[in-house]
Amino acid sequence: LPSILCLADCQLQTPCRIQKCTTDFVSLTSHLNSALDGFDLEFCKALRAYAACTYRNSKVCRGNLVYHSAVLGISDLMSQRNCSKDGPTSSTNPETTHDPCSYSGHAGAREHQGEEQTSPTYLFCGLFGDPHLRTFKDHFQTCKVEGAWPLIDNNYLSVQVTNVPVVPGSSATATNKITIIFKSYQDCTDQKVYQAVTDDLPAAFVDGTTSGTGGSIKSLQIVEKVGGKYVEMHARYIGTTVYIRQLGHYLMLAIRMPQEFAMAYEESQDLQLCVNGCPSSERIYDNGHLPLPVMGQLLPQASATHPWSVYTLETATTKCHEKMLVKDIYFYSCVFDLLTTGDVNFTAAAHSALKDVEALHPRKEHWHIFPSNESGGDGVGTGSKFFVSPGLVCLILAVFL
Q1: Alpha carbon of 316 to those of 148, 200, 295: distances in Å?
Q2: Where in the cell is it found (predicted)?
């Protein structure tokens, strides 16, 4: 009897640790990507570890509503993912869960060891339209850059784009070819080359594979989202995500990459559009503004094979406003592209470019960029205003330097 009383008393004094079980589960699954191979395997391992943790606390948490909700939630998730109750479980020990081919695992290890930098800094770069460039520094430019140009060229990744003229008589170009080289990295991946051209957007590398070095969770993976129109690349070992789309006859690209890798390059690799922007001689501007064709006039040498639609400032503004309600630089890029080319696909490109920013850019307050004010502000933020008079015969679009 004294032993039973002591046991009961000890149970009453032992706290319910369901919150710790939940925190460990979130930690084990926060880095997983449902679009990648191996997700179900790792998720089920984490679920079984979660279930084991709740079982160990079943007696002390018997009257806890959070505990009972967790138990029901685990059962539902196991059914949804077809997880067996028996099998391997994930370890909550950071030392044993460290994955050398997972950048998020590196960040977690640094945090566990108490290092000063506990969360990585990510950078974003995007190229779309004819062509508009958003650099790693959130500078926005519109450039000519005809031919092949390096978008990124560091010790881990190379991205080259090829641009061709869009309309005869205009200096505007658009991207019709993208070449990406993921350089070999330790035991995580061999060198992989990807190439996309107009009307050929493959969901595989040039060697026919869809991933890097094998493993239960691929350290490098290509995922096809829309057949022939949209692919994603996930390089877990360097924490990098790449989106490539084809809209109309041209390609567009968006990328998120940790700063420590994006800035790891030699002095000879300084010509990178994502890092330093377009050379001044390649930027389309006139005293800081982009000149547009006169409203209502066909562009010179318009081909009968490719009849360009005639947009005025008013109709182009209306068309772009259908897709984008915020009049930021993406909205005005859309208007510029319609007036320059007459190709309505550039409207969808500008809209998709903004959506890619919202998906990949790490700082929500910097998603929208507004044209520079007269005092020379950088235009990043949500407080700037930009007005266009309907009486103007051409739109003035500010270019970010």
Answers
A1: 30, 30, 10
A2: Cell membrane
SS3 260: helix
Neighbours of 40 (CB within 10 A): 13
Structure tokens at 66: 């959070």
Which residues have a Cβ under 8 Å from the Cβ of 353 and sit 6 or more positions away?
A: 126, 128, 129, 132, 134, 252, 254, 330, 333
pLDDT digits (tens, 9 = 90+) for 90-101: 765 544 445 678
The per-residue pLDDT for range 35-67, each reduced to its tens digit, is: 676 788 889 989 999 998 998 888 889 889 899
Measuring CA to CA, how many Å separate 198 from each of 178, 207, 247, 307? Answer: 9, 19, 9, 20
Distance (Å, rounded) from C-alpha 204 to C-alpha 222?
6
CA distances from 394 to 36, 290, 324, 385 (A): 47, 9, 20, 19
3-class secondary structure, 288: coil
DSSP 70-89: HHHHHHHHHHHTT--SSS--
Residues 6+ apart with CB under 8 A from 117: 110
Annotation: CATH topology of 122-284: Protein Transport Mog1p; Chain A (3.40.1000)
The pLDDT of residue 295 is above 70: no
Asked whether the beta carbons of 236 and 229 are under 8 A apart, the reply is: no
pLDDT in tens, 343-365: 899 999 999 999 999 999 989 99
User: How confident is the model at residue 331, as a pLDDT?
Assistant: 93
DSSP SS3 for 31: coil
